[in-house]
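Repro:
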Amino acid sequence: MLNLYPTAGEAGGSFVPSYRPASAWVPPGAAADPDRSRVEAGRRAKKKLRTYCAHSRLNRLGTLTYRGSGCHDPAQLRLDVAEFFRKLRASLGGDPLPYVWVPEWHKSGHGLHVHFAVGQFVPRSMINEAWGRGFVHIKRLSDLSVGTTTWQEARVAAGYLSKYVTKTFGSDSAERLLGLHRYEVAQGFQPPVIRLSGRTSYEALAKAVEIMGFAPSVSWSSDEAEEWKAPPAVWFAWG
C-alpha cells in the first residue's frame, strides 16, 4: 500500500503480505520493545509534520520567547500561543491561516519558548504586536540552493521542527505528563491522501507517477537501512 499526498508532493508506504494475524492492543508505555516503539512513534510524527508543512508550503520559521522569568506552565503556553495566532490571523485579514508550532524548554531554565512555521510573508511588526509577551524572530529559508522549490523549503522547515518534536520521545516532559500534544497545527489543512495498491512498489509508484504527471525527484527504500526492523518501506518525493 502506497499513500500518496499529491498536494504535499510525496508518497510512502509499507509492503506486507495481504494476510497478517491481528496484533493485540498494547496500552501506552507497555510495549515489548520500548526503544523501537519510541523510534516508530518519532518517525510517524515526523512524517505527519512533513506532509502538513509541504501541503501548505510552510517555509518561514519563527520563534516566540517570553520576557522576564519566562513561562514554565505548558497549559498557559498553549493559551498564549492560541491567542497569538488568533491575533495574527485577524491582522492578516481574518482568512484561515495554516501554521504549525512546537514547544521547547530552554536549556538555561528560562522556561518554554515556541518554534513555528507559516507559509506567507508576515511583517515582523505584526508578529511583535500579536505576541506582545517578549521577543520574536522570523525568517524564510533562503539559504538553500538555487532552484529550491517551496515543497523542498517546507520539508526543510519541517526537519527543523521535527528535531524539537522528537526530543520529547522517551522523556517524561511536562507536556507528556499533562497529556498534551508534542506539536500543534491549524485545523482544516490536513493534506488529502490517495491510497494506491500494487503487487510491487514499482507498480504502486507507476500509479502515483500517473497522478502526479512526472517522476519523483527523490526516492528511498528501507533496503538502504542496515538496521531496519519494520516491514519493507519506500518513500518518494516530488518537486
